[in-house]
Amino acid sequence: MITEKLRPELLVLFIGFNPSLRSYERGFNYAGRANRFYKVLYLSGLTERLYAPEESDQLLDDYRYGFTNIVTRPTARADEITKNEYREGAKILYQKISLYRPRIACFVGKGVYLSYKGTSRQQSWGFTETPTIQNTRDFVAPSTSGLVRMRLAEQVAIYSQLAIAIQPCKGAT
Fold first, then answer.
1. Helix (H, G, I), strand (E, B), or coil: what is residue 33?
2. How confident is the model over 32-65, as pLDDT tens digits?
3. Could you tell me which of 95, 98, 101 has the C-alpha nearest to residue 11?
4. Helix ranges restricted to H, 36-123
5. CATH number of the structural domain spanning residue 52
6. Packing angle between helix 110-117 and helix 83-100, nearest 10 degrees?
7. In a domain, 22, yes or no
8. Tens digits of per-residue pLDDT, 107-158?
9. What angle do CA 46, 168, 100 make, to 5 degrees?
10. Which pTM value belongs to this model?
11. Which domain holds residue 23?
């Protein structure tokens, strides 16, 4: 099933590696039992309540949060994605961001951002210095996968930077 949720005038476009097998089966983003995505959104202030994966359509309507991935093929782990899939996916992702023009492109994982940029350079968490596409800010956030060993409090602190940045934009289109 397609997990992508896109429309014009997005406030934030969350970009993952690819759908997990569970997300793909269910048709919802970040649907794995151990994935912290929706909990991190809530605890960081990006949502006013805890959403379930099944409610990802509501995030599109309630907050103008969209979802896509750099690679569309579902896998059990991101390390199953080939370099060629990343290269092709980066081109398609660039086109999607250019078309939908979200205010912020939030890369859910440093590896997602580095694959998109086609580089292995170091990248810190948060907003990047130079956006890839004019009028869309790039934000690099940690993956919320249950396979990531980062503490929940650290993830929430990074996503809180995003919540603070979008406060002035919440009512605007």
1. coil
2. 788 899 999 999 999 999 999 889 889 999 999 9
3. 101
4. 37-44, 56-63, 83-100, 110-117
5. 3.40.470.10
6. 90
7. yes
8. 999 989 999 998 777 889 999 988 889 999 999 999 998 778 899 999 999 9
9. 75
10. 0.91
11. 12-169
